[in-house]
Specification:
By secondary structure, the chain is mainly alpha-helical. The chain is built from 13 helices and three strands, in the order ααααβββααααααααα.
Length: 396
């Protein structure tokens, strides 16, 4: 038992050390990618990095707090939490409340700060989906309709914003949770096919999405328009070559590459640190996903395994999609690179997921310690009984 607890502790340390390295590189690259833009817009090159450090402090505090709670609490209220998160997403499309940029209303702005509620529902749908699919057989038709409708409400709102990137991630994580749950297999496959057809319809229902797809196929057709961003990303990687131009020496961040400190920060890494830096980031995320899944699979509770696996899945999926977009392997979507890109909403929500994961692990560790204490008491009781029997024999 002690060996298992020690093994879990080592896995947690390795997992968190990998995450710490990713975050440290992220802070360095946010400063490098943003200091010229920050100086131009705000008169100080430290504007973005200071805000990112504040977001990081808040994120770590939230993660620690969540990790000390029982994850069963979050699952119990997952339905209501997802409804609340969906209502916040809905506010973004209300005129005069949401902030629009580049044809999309994805932000809420107050007190000089902006939040992106779409980042929240990437994790709240996990809670709601797990509760819904695991309790499917216990629900009547009315309850299934109510809970199912609440689960897919944020998807409809994300399309309305529109935010097809977050919609895609939420849809895939719901499918992932459904597959791992006790939801009937035949219904799962029917739903997956229907969802895939619906996703294709949504993709081709808007002209700008079709335009993005055509740009992905041939960005050079409109190099100064829709293809500009991805072409600049290509140039960043080409400039970086094997070993890069050196930290802080990116040319593309000089107002050529849009969102250099956010969605396309991976391009700046490629230009400044070269193939070596790109390969390092990819290896770090592979290690993060590997140790995350390995840690979760130590847990005995099936619900905890599904919850923890879904969290690692959504973080790994977003990293994969961001890298795919920046490298030109996928059509352009508004997705950042977890723990590396600038952004408070993303960082705080991602750390909320990490807190949930650590809560699952803590529950398992507490269970092991409880069993260990029980075995110790049982062993002590056995020794006391043996001693009493020995004394009885002596007096006899």
């Amino acid at each position: 038992m002690n060996e298992q607890i020690s093994y879990v502790d080592r896995l947690v340390k390795t997992f968190l050390s990998t995450l710490a390295i990713i975050i440290t590189i992220g802070l360095i690259m946010v400063w490098s990618a943003s200091f010229i833009l920050a100086a131009e817009k705000f008169g100080t090159s430290l504007h973005y990095i200071i805000r990112q450090l504040i977001y990081l402090g808040l994120s770590v505090g939230l993660s620690f707090t969540v990790s000390r709670t029982k994850y069963s609490f979050w699952l119990k209220y997952g339905y209501m939490i997802n409804i609340a998160a969906s209502m916040i997403v809905g506010l973004t499309i209300v005129k005069g409340v949401g902030s629009a940029a580049k044809g999309a209303s994805r932000w809420l702005t107050f007190g000089g700060m902006s939040i992106q509620p779409g980042e929240i529902v990437k994790f709240t749908v996990i809670l709601s989906a797990l509760s819904f699919f695991e309790n499917w057989n216990k629900m009547d038709s009315k309850e299934r309709l109510k809970h199912g409708g609440s689960l897919f409400l944020p998807l409809a709102l994300l399309i309305k914003q529109p935010d097809f990137g977050s919609f895609s991630i939420c849809f895939m994580v719901i499918a992932f949770v459904c597959f791992l749950s006790s939801f009937p297999r035949k219904y799962f496959y029917y739903s997956l096919v229907a969802g895939g057809v619906g996703g294709i319809f949504i993709l081709f229902s808007q002209a700008y999405r079709v335009k993005r797809l055509l740009t992905y196929l041939d960005p050079w057709k409109n190099p100064q328009g829709s293809g500009f961003q991805i072409i600049q990303s290509y140039m960043a990687f080409a400039n970086g070559a094997a070993f890069g131009q050196g930290l802080g020496n990116s040319n593309e961040k000089l107002f050529y590459l849009p969102e250099a400190h956010n969605d396309f920060i991976f391009s700046v890494i490629g230009e400044e640190l070269g193939f070596v830096g790109v390969f390092l980031i990819i290896c770090l995320f592979i290690a993060f996903i590997y140790f995350g899944f390995k840690l979760v699979l130590q847990v005995r509770d099936r619900i905890g395994i599904i919850l923890g696996s879904a969290i690692i899945f959504v973080l790994g999926l977003q990293a994969l999609l961001n890298m795919g977009v920046v490298l030109g392997l996928l059509p352009t979507k508004g997705l950042n690179l977890p723990f590396i890109s600038y952004g408070g909403s993303s960082l705080i929500c991602n750390f909320f997921g990490i807190g949930l994961l650590l809560s699952v692990v803590k529950g398992y560790r507490d269970q092991l310690q409880g069993e260990l204490r029980y075995e110790a008491r049982k062993s002590a009781s056995s020794k006391d009984s043996a001693a009493e029997e020995s004394e009885t024999e002596v007096y006899a």
